[in-house]
C-alpha cells in the first residue's frame, strides 16, 4: 500500500508538471496582452507645412474651439397653415419635402457671425419666406433676427441680430485654397448644436445645377442666373449644416456650406460650399446697395471638352466657348468685339478653364468694372477689354426693387368696370386677377376671381386704394380681406398677419 500511494502521488505530480509545462509553451506561442494605461486625448494625427515652411502637428482642437463660438443655430418659422408641398431641391436636401401640414412650419439651419456688430451670413433657403427668424448663439442666448438682404442667385442671405461684441470669423481668400487641404465644417446637423467634422477639399469650381433649378422666375432668356462654383469637401455635412462654416485650419472662413450630393438627403460623401470670395462680395453689396450688383457680359457659354474641340475645330482643350449672345441685344461682350466661336481662356490674370470659372469671376464684378478678356480665335490669342453692364444693359448700379404692398402679398389685382359691378349687384370692389407665392396664397384659401370689397372695415374701389391701405400696415398687423365670389350668394372673410 505504501508503494501504491507513492505511485499515485508521483502520477499526480507528473500530471501537474505536464499541464503547467503545456500552458507555459502555449502562452509563449499565442500570447494576447490587453494593456490599459492612463493618457491624454491624441490630437496630433499628422503633420502639415505652415506658411513659414515648417512642419507642425496637425491639430483640430484649437481651430474647433475658435470657430464654434462664431457659428449659430437658426430657426425659421412660417406662421399660419402651410399646406403646400415644396419642390425646391435645396429645401429637399436640407429640410426634406414639406408635405401637407397644419400650423406653423419650422425649419432649422446654421449661420456664421462675420463681425462683432451682429451680422450673420447664412443660406437664402434657410430664411426664405420666414415670418420669424430666431438665432441661438453658442452660449445658448437667443435673439430675433432681421433679414438684411438675400441673393437667390448664390443662395446667400445676410441677417442681423441686435447684439454687439460677438465672436466672429474673418474671410480668407478662397482662391488660394487647394485640393487636398484640410478643412472643418461647423454647423447644427439634425439640431445637434456646434457639430464639427473634418475632411479635405475634394474639388473646386463645382457646378451641380441646384441653385434656382426649380425657380423659373430666376431664369432669363439666356438660361439660369445662378452662380455655382462650389468648393467640394468630404467633411460630413447633413441637414442643418446649411448656412454653416467651412474653415481652414487657421479658423479662416473659406465658404458657406450649402448643399450635399446624396440619394437619401443625408451625408453620402460630398458637400458643397459657396466660396468665401463670392460670399464677401455679396455681403458687401447687400450692405452698401441693399441688393447685389452683378456685372453682365451678355453671352452664352459652355465648357470646352474634347468633343466640342473636335466638332468646332478648336485649338485649345479647355476654356469657356462662346455659343451666343443675349437675345435682348444688350451684350457688353459682343459690343467689345467678341464673336461666337471664340474661347475665353483668361480674364485679367485668372486662367479660365470652364464656363463655371467664367461665371464665377464675372459674378464677382460690378456694372461699370473693366476687365481684360483673353480669347483664342482659331488659334490666335487676342486680348479684348470689356466694360461690364448690369442686367438691364446699362453701366450704372442697380437699385433695390421695392415691391408694392399688393405684390409683396402675392396678389395681382384689376379694377372692375361699372357694368360688371352692377351685374354682380355691387357698388364697388377690386378683382383678384391672379395669386402667386405670397402670404395670401400661403395662409388663406382665397381663389382667383375673388372680389375684395373691404379691407378690415374700409371699402375699396380700386387696386390703388388697396395698395394704399396695405402700405399703412406694419409687420404683425392683422389684415381681413372681405368680399364675394361671382354667383356665390355669401360673403367671405380672409384673415392673416401682415
Helix-strand makeup class: alpha+beta
Looking at the structure, the CATH topology of the largest domain is: Thrombin, subunit H
Quickly give the CATH architecture of the largest domain: Beta Barrel
Shape: globular
Spatial extent as radius of gyration: 32 Å
- Write down the overall mean pLDDT: 82
- CATH superfamily caption of the largest domain: Trypsin-like serine proteases
Please summarize what this structure is.
This protein has 498 residues and is α+β, with helices and mostly antiparallel strands. It has a six-stranded antiparallel barrel with strand order 3-4-5-8-7-6. It has twelve helices and 28 strands.
Describe the structure in your own words:
The protein is of the alpha+beta class and 498 residues long. The protein has four domains: 96 residues, Trypsin-like serine proteases (Thrombin, subunit H, Beta Barrel), CATH 2.40.10; 116 residues, Beta Barrel (Thrombin, subunit H); 89 residues, PDZ domain (Pdz3 Domain, Roll), CATH 2.30.42; 93 residues, Pdz3 Domain, CATH 2.30.42.10. Helices cover 21% and strands 32% of the residues. It is built from twelve helices and 28 strands. The strands form six sheets. A six-stranded antiparallel β-barrel has the order 3-4-5-8-7-6. Strand 25 and strand 26 form a beta hairpin. The protein is globular and about 85 Å long. The N and C termini lie far apart (112 Å). About 8% of the residues have low confidence.
